[in-house]
Every structure is written in C-alpha cells, then in structure tokens.
Amino acid sequence: MKQETINIRVESEFCKIPTNGEIQIQSWEATERKKRALKAACVCFGLAGASAFLPIAHFVLVPGFLLAIPFVFSFISKQQNKLLGGSYLCPCCGTKMELHSQPADFPIQDTCSTCRKSVSIQMVA
Ligand SMILES: [Zn+2]
User: Fold this and answer.
1) How far is the CA of 20 from the centre of ligand 1 (A)?
2) From its phi and psi, is residue 94 left (phi > 0), alpha (psi between -120 and 50) or beta?
3) Residue 40 — very low, low, confident or very high, per pLDDT cuts 50/70/90?
4) Distance 50 CA to ligand 1 centre (A)
C-alpha cells in the first residue's frame, strides 16, 4: 500500500488560465489487491451467514450476499488506486475546492460550487 501526493492541473473550457492543486492517491500492489478482495469476499460470506438468522429477510439477504461475492472480489481486485482527497483553486472564480474520495480515473470532472462552471482535473506528469 502506497500513498502519495500528486500535483494536478485544473482547466475549464470557460476560463483560459489553468490552476494547480494537489491530490492524495492510494495505490495497491497486485498481492495487496488480492488480499483486500479476499477480505471483502469473506465479509460478504460472513454477512450471508449472519443474515441466515433473520426471519423472512434471510430469503433475500443470504442469496444476495452470496451472489455479491464474485462482483465484490472482481471490483476490488481490479482497483489499482483510489483518490483519497485533495484541493484546488477554481480556474474561473478562484474558490478553493475540495475533492473527496473517489476512483482515480483521469481526467476527473468536477463542478465549482460557487460559479457552477465545470472543470477538468488532470495529473501533471
Ligand atoms: Zn468557480
């Protein structure tokens, strides 16, 4: 598990001068991804077992959690990195914006909460 701070460039089609910012990204090696996926699959299996004791709801919950196992395993084992958070200045109005936790799929699209202009966030190489 590796956590690093990366510089970003923020552009908007409405404003010509790009701004900069910083984001924190967490990334996992292949073996760590497998471990995380296995742990999440075990949690699903445990929830399926625990929900077997709930009257009536167990008809839906037990098969639901068991069917979710391959999807959860696949999703988490493919997740190489994740954006933990960050901040930047809006290129149009200069408001400081916060990025919250989300998949790190660049370019990230965001909307300024002050001027309502859409911005595109790129990693700086
Ligand atoms: Zn703005």
Assistant:
1) 14
2) left
3) very high
4) 48
DSSP state of 106: S
Q: Which residues are found with C-beta within 5 Å of the ion, ligand 1?
A: 90, 92-93, 95, 112, 114-115
Predicted local confidence at residue 77, as pLDDT: 94
Which residues constitute the domain of residue 20?
Answer: 2-28+80-123
Same domain, 73 and 100: no
Do 44 and 66 lie in one domain? The reply is yes
pTM of the predicted model as reported, rounded to 2 decimal places: 0.71
- The two three-digit tokens of residue 25, written as one number: 């990204």
The Cα 104–Cα 81 span in angstroms is 6
How far apart are the CA of 82 and the centre of ligand 1, in A? 25
- Write phi, then psi, for 57 (nearest 5 degrees): -60, -25
CA of 110 to the centre of ligand 1 (A): 10
The alpha carbon of 125 and the centre of ligand 1 are apart by a number of angstroms equal to 25
pLDDT digits (tens, 9 = 90+) for 66-119: 999 999 999 999 999 999 999 999 999 999 999 999 988 889 999 999 999 999
